[in-house]
Specification:
Elements lengths: L4 E4 L6 H10 L4 E5 L13 H14 L5 E3 L11 H18 L6 E4 L9 H15 L7 E5 L12 H10 L6 E6 H6 L8 H11 L5 E6 L1 E2 L10 E2 L8 H9 L8 E3 L5 H14 L3
Parallel strand pairs: 1-2, 1-10, 2-3, 3-4, 4-5, 5-6, 6-7, 7-10
Antiparallel strand pairs: 8-9
Helix pairs in contact: 1-2, 3-4, 4-5
The structure holds fe (iii) ion (2 copies) and zinc ion.
Length: about 280
């Protein structure tokens, strides 16, 4: 199988439109926000639109998309109303995602805002315990974070401690964001093998489900989280060639979240396909 790659797309025109847009730029998967990334009520999803997308997938060999939770979802906020919003949003998204069988739902674990990582991890696990259901077909992904401010998920250990505390932990996976782990301090440029061994030791590579492919504007360990176009940041093109071809990573879906419009994404997808060894 070839490289499974896509980018983040706007969901404003619906599911079939996203799948068609993905195909038009050479992508064979895509990511979308379940609702406005900065919060608020979600638009209704139409089952006919979802079905049309699924039919298009079968026809065109496009992989299931990755759903992304809004950034405002903070399961470990200090303010209980913010946590309540996170709980409601999470539960509602998981309910609606049942319209798309076997999809993945990625979320940022959250920011503990001064309560400490230990408390944050506990609150995130509590939220997951309240929303996960045995019958759901959606896999919920914890994203590796840069550690900006009080973000949880800056280390593999923090993600592991969340997973360890959740009852239905077999519903959980991890999405590795290259910009975030780099900004978090992991040297995926000169020591990719070691980082993946570490990931396997701490979390387990069997938990890895998806990769966000982003270059970084910042130096390693900066804890900043500012994405750059592929090959134009401090990670660099050579490292991305290694990442997409690495035996432990090459069969996962890769999603670009680089600062691009569609034409820029199209170029990056083309470039990465050229670098993928078949
Ligand atoms: Fe994200
Ligand atoms: Fe990301
Ligand atoms: Zn980011």
């Amino acid at each position: 199988m070839g490289l499974r790659i896509g980018c983040h797309l706007s969901s404003s025109k619906g599911f079939l439109a996203m799948a068609q847009t993905a195909e038009s730029i050479g992508a064979n998967t895509f990511q979308f926000f379940t609702r406005n990334p900065r919060g608020g009520a979600a638009k209704e999803w139409q089952q006919e639109d979802v079905d049309a997308m699924l039919a298009f997938f079968r026809e065109k060999d496009i992989g299931k998309p990755l759903a992304h939770a809004p950034y405002t979802l903070n399961a470990c906020a200090k303010d209980s109303r913010v946590r309540e919003f996170a709980l409601e949003t999470f539960a509602d998204d998981l309910k609606r995602l049942q319209m798309i069988p076997d999809v993945m739902y990625n979320f940022h674990p959250g920011s503990h805002v001064g309560q400490g990582a230990e408390t944050g991890v506990g609150l995130i696990a509590d939220t997951l315990d309240q929303v996960l259901r045995e019958e759901q077909t959606t896999t919920v992904l914890l994203e590796t974070m840069a550690g900006k401010g009080s973000e949880i998920g800056r280390s593999f250990e923090e993600l592991r401690s969340i997973i360890d505390r959740v009852d239905l932990s077999h519903k959980l996976g991890v999405c590795l964001d290259t910009c975030h782990v780099w900004d978090g301090g992991y040297d995926i440029v000169d020591h990719l093998d070691e980082v993946l061994i570490e990931f396997d030791r701490v979390i387990g590579l069997d938990r890895l489900c998806a990769i966000h492919l982003n270059d970084s504007m910042n130096v390693r360990g900066s804890h900043k989280d500012r994405h750059q176009k592929i090959g134009q940041g401090n990670i660099g093109l050579k490292a991305f060639e290694h990442i997409i071809n690495h035996p432990s990573l090459r069969n996962f879906p890769f999603y670009l979240e680089t600062p691009n419009e569609l034409d820029g994404y199209q170029e990056e997808i083309h470039l990465l396909k050229e670098l993928y060894r078949v």
